[in-house]
Amino acid sequence: MPAIAASVKAENDAFYWHLGDFRWTSNKDQDLVSMLPAGKELSTEEYHRIEWDDFLTHQIASFGTFPVFIGRGNHENVPPMTRDGYIAKFETLLDRPEIAEQRKADGADAGPVGPWYHWTHKGVDFITLDNATKDEFSDAQLKWLRGVLDRDLAPGSGIKAIVAGMHEALPHSKGSEHAMDDWELGERTGDLVYNWFYDAQAAGKFVYLFASHSHYYSPNIFNTPYWKERSNRVVPGLIIGSAGARRYPLPRDAEKTAKSHIYGYVQGQVHADGKIDFKLRELSEDDLVKSRWPNAPLDAIHECVVNNAD
Fold first, then answer.
1. Are 234 and 192 in contact (CB under 8 A)?
2. What residues pair up with 282 in beta bridges, in sequence order?
3. End-to-end CA distance of the chain
4. Is the dihedral of CA 219, 222, 223, 225 positive or negative?
5. Low-confidence residues of the chain, pLDDT below 70?
């Protein structure tokens, strides 16, 4: 994450969007443990007390004043972590000025500060959805999303493009082995949400769908027989889960341009008409070393690059 922060700041990007899994939670993070004082042993209880603070200290702090938006991942719900705890800990990020301003503009339809929200930037509506737990998409989130899309589609909205980011990919993608297909409510409501975005695309908006649950880079994820049989043109979508978590092998039907066992992020360039081009920005071991915290040992960084993968 410090290397991503250095790169997006050097590129003069507008913001960075993190779609969840800030810390491992079910086990102690190797990077966190590697930076403990010599001889320090960390109990599970101690780890759980500090893990989210460590995320803020060693990841978010790397960005300084550069805007960062976050989404909830399934590891943010591994006990003892909870949805309410997530909102309380990250309220400042979940109510950034851009989000608060958008909530004010949405009025009564905005809802409280929470894990789903949106903000607009130069004619693009960026929508953060929460599908990190098996009770989503809830009726409340669906009602909220339908209102957001209706306002985007209204004449004179000024919205040219819609980018939706969520932790798990919507169903029937090329990442369906690890996505909303995994539970009945997820598949049913995920199908509905995909069709809403498809309808927005058919209405003339540029629409793009992002997920991060699978730890690799995979573009064109909805270019599958399921969706091609049901639509004239699939909605562009990709999976980018390469910000530090253990890296996964690619599914067999991934696009030829998909990549596993990498670190990096995806950068978007918005054109005047609202079309967005996306490019994978890979990070090398040298990038990680140059941006490391002073107490991050070089051997731990090398171990992360070489062996942090299935």
1. no
2. 264
3. 20
4. positive
5. none
In which residue are the tokens 């967005």 written?
276
- What is the helix (H) or strand (E) element at residue 218, kind and residue range? strand 217-219
Between the CA of residue 266 and those of 8, 263, 278, what are the distances in Å? 10, 11, 6
Q: Read off the pLDDT of residues 31-58 as tens digits, 9 standing for 90 and up.
A: 999 999 999 999 999 999 999 999 999 9
Which residue in 177, 242, 231, 183 sits closest to 207, CA to CA? 231
Strand duo 206-211 + 263-270: pairing: unpaired
Residue recorded with tokens 């009945």: 184
107 Cβ partners below 8 Å, 6+ apart? Answer: none
Spatial distance between the Cα atoms of 28 and 42, rounded to a whole number of angstroms = 9
One-letter amino acid for residue 209 of the chain: L
d(CA 76, CA 72): 6
Residue type, 195: N
Per DSSP, the residues of 234-273 read PPPEEEE--SSSPBPPPPTT--TT-B-S-EEEEEEEE-TT
Residue 79 near residue 21, CB atoms below 8 Å: no
Total domains present in the chain: 1
- 75, 183, 69, 176: which is closest to 136 by C-alpha? 183
CATH code at 293?
A: 3.60.21
pTM of full prediction above 0.70: yes
